[in-house]
Write a structure and sequence with these properties.
Layout lengths: L7 H4 L2 H22 L4 H19 L7 H26 L11
């Protein structure tokens, strides 16, 4: 677990955006499923893209620049993939390997 809170600076990088995406998807997916069925992977891409766009806008990005949104969407796929790996690690943590013991 991280030892500091989120800032707009760390939400603009892969680690911060992935962690917040993972948390938002985990806490909201079951509620969202009651209203609309959307694959979790696509939902995570959307959440990640919004987080990245918000971080860029908070850092002074131009809200009228289409490239900000295009890049946020493209990077949203990478954020969602990393958040998925966080989910995999949370569900089945890596096992410690021991030599010679069964």
């Amino acid at each position: 677990m991280p030892d500091n809170l989120f800032t707009f600076d760390n939400l603009g990088n892969l680690a911060g955006a992935s962690l917040l995406t993972y948390l938002i998807v985990q806490y909201t997916k079951s509620t969202l499923d009651m209203f609309i069925k959307i694959p979790t992977d696509l939902y995570a891409v959307g959440v990640g893209s919004v987080i990245l766009a918000g971080a860029q806008l908070a850092a002074g990005g131009n809200p009228c620049d289409w490239r900000l949104y295009a890049l946020s969407l493209a990077n949203g796929f990478m954020v969602a993939a990393t958040a998925g790996k966080l989910n995999d690690a949370a569900l089945s943590p890596p096992m410690l390997k021991t030599r010679g013991k069964k």
